[in-house]
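pinging the channel bc i need a second pair of eyes. not urgent but kinda urgent?? the chain im working w is below, pasted from the shared doc
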Amino acid sequence: MSENTVPTRVFVSHTSLDKKFTRQLAYDLKKAGVEVWFDEWEIRVGDSLREKVERGIHESGWLIIVLSPRAVASQWVQRELSAAFARELDDKRVFILPVLLEKCELPVMLRDKKYADFTENYSRGLQELLQTILPTGSGSTAPFGELIDVNAHLWMERFESDLNAIIERARTAGVSKIIASACNGPYSWSRSLEISARFNNIYVSLALHPTRGPLDVGGPGRKLDSPTDEELALLESFITNEKVIAIGDVQLQYQRQELESCPRDRQIEILDRHLFMALRYQIPVIAEIHGGQQANEDFLGLMDSGYQGKIRVAVQCPISKDFAISCSERGYYQIITGNYAFPKAESLREMLGIFPQERLLLASNCPAFAPPPLRGNRNEPSYLPNLLAALRGFNCCIPQELAYTTTHNAMRFFEFGSRRYPKPAPGQGLPYTFG
């Protein structure tokens, strides 16, 4: 190894009494792209413990020391710390990265070092650690690490001319996965699946709005048409595609013009059909409910009729505080979009305090809702970091923490690439007859 070369591996020093925390930390570092030396992964039966540890420290670029009262009292941790401190003096650079698991009396050689504080917030501590470990200047401009956009309408015509550039900008901004949402009928479904076939990191969410607005595409469609029975039957055949990982966004639209096009009873029937397919294929639902208290009550009532607790639900832009509270109490997730950062969106930002952080998701909802300072432009997935930055301070929002938790939440909620359920023939066993 040359004098100027810094190894990228991270050695994790800890006491076995803190093994549960350290194992999770090692796993999350590895998931973030860090090469980790962790004793459970490196030492085999018959190996010399001292030799393995000494070699591990020598071949690593950093040593993370997990600090707790138990670790400070451990002679083994003290030996590793002494070896690491000698290495730091020899290399004349930062080598030891303290991680504070529990408050304790810090070793003398660490008292003037800044530590990553995990005592109150694991996500924040991990982000602090990754900001030091991960390389900079490597071509990535992702300020918040990995992000997932759970609702982007990429099928629309306004994205067609520069779609490749849009996906590349998203990748550069740290957006690792995108859910392409299509709700305007067969053309939008086909187009979204075509895009997902071209890009491995794009997945699909499909639905059929009860009242379709003007289409931003040259395909078939009529303004404010109610879906036909044939289209609703066709929807299921598209949902069986492996890239379809959600149903949405499903809607109730109770404004006067929408009700004239599709009456309330018909809208509830259409929503019921979507929820049943979500239950049948065990994929989550993205819901956007408009129309005041009546629409909120109808949605929650339909969920209570046999779906509550059986399907995962994420709501986008809940309009009323009472509806948001009801959704949060039921365990639903909340989707944060660019309009949460608009100057006059205090009522939306209030929702950030209603849902626990472990049930928050991020979405561009592009092409609408470009966040400040890009408002007025065509929105796209690469603007998610701008949304996070614009939310800084609202309801004590810490962008790095929100980025980390929403990404993990999305992985858990959507189960990307892990559809394990059988795909029965379309229409088989459904409680509806169409046509």
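so The chain is about 40% helix and 15% strand. and Confidence is low (pLDDT under 50) at residues 1-7, 136-140, 214-222, 420-435. — does that match what u expected or am i reading it wrong
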